[in-house]
Design goal:
homodimer, mainly alpha, 8 helices, DNA-binding, DNA-binding (chains A, B), KstR2_TetR_C (chains A, B)
Amino acid sequence: MATRTDAPTRREQILKEAARLFAERGFHGVGVDEIGAAVGISGPGLYRHFAGKDAMLAELLVGISGQLLTGAKRRLAEADGGPADAVLDSLIEGHIDFALDDRPLITLHDRELDRLRDSDRKLVRQLQRQYVELWVEVLREVYPGIAEPAARSAVHSVFGLLNSTPHLGRPGSLPGRGATAELLHRMARGAFAAAGAE
Amino acid sequence: MATRTDAPTRREQILKEAARLFAERGFHGVGVDEIGAAVGISGPGLYRHFAGKDAMLAELLVGISGQLLTGAKRRLAEADGGPADAVLDSLIEGHIDFALDDRPLITLHDRELDRLRDSDRKLVRQLQRQYVELWVEVLREVYPGIAEPAARSAVHSVFGLLNSTPHLGRPGSLPGRGATAELLHRMARGAFAAAGAE
DNA sequence: CCTTCAGGTTAACGACCGCTAACCTCCCTG
DNA sequence: CAGGGAGGTTAGCGGTCGTTAACCTGAAGG
């Protein structure tokens, strides 16, 4: 995957700022004028790029879910045939990268889902479910003793653990990105191990 | 603590329904008319019991934080002098009880804090900080090797794990409350153990 | 050089929502 | 048995917000 070097499009600027604002003050707490101001244009100018405020949220949430799922599938494919243990580590690593690099999106991801139109919400839920099931399969390979409902619960709980990054204080009070990532990784493995030991 | 047997007051009804609605659709997503309807009165009737919509949210959040802190202090006092290990277990148990019994409140707790007036938000933050510090102290007794910043991060992350209950599916798809509580408890201990093993 | 169109602008409409005003109706109490 | 307060009601005001309408402008293309 080539790293982007070209300038972000106006659409992307808007999405990024909207994500930040939605995460800070909630979907209903942010006005379109604010979003516009954040990218240097004013309120209604946004409608040249999006059908409405809802559309921005929808694109954000679908994008997040899709990105997570795609990344996980890729990691699974890359490690095809390898030890399930390593695959689980790779999944954890990917999720942590995302949680540390895109904190606003992680926040939105489980906070504003209910504000979506039915069709969009169904789509997001479906992507999320696939992502979870993917983890569940790998987890049950590593810990064959764990029953499926328990495995699903364990996966959701570890997501809760990994998604706690927004609560870990602003960057700077953290012990450094690498150390935080490592700590989260160890804790996730520890939690899974405890769930697997019946 | 004696279990309440008398009927809930109107104020308590309102708070409970408001908590549920706020958790479902967000603070700004719920109108006062809806809250009123949920308790059988209509919109402005709420103002006989609360100064405004903000006041309901404030009372809910301050109440949650206070309850968590008070409960933790009580458990700490009860186990005074006992093994730190057992105290940690008691803290975890208390938090899980809360997360399982008052899911809407847990949801609100880290979702709508920014909607509070400055003074209320400061109060809630102060209560939360005390609660965290209490856990950090106990955790560092159990795992003396862990540095304080890492311990704080670990505590926040385990809160994320325990507070994942709203994502565990509606009661019924769960393997039963007792089993869920036990699983969460084991995972929390596993995560802490992994954080403590440097 | 004229045209076109992408991407802005401001004005304003309509809906919604928090809150207040004004009024009503029990029930408790002196 | 008056009267007063607790706890409702409906009507409506004022502000906010998403969205649309109408207009403007600069740059690219024939």
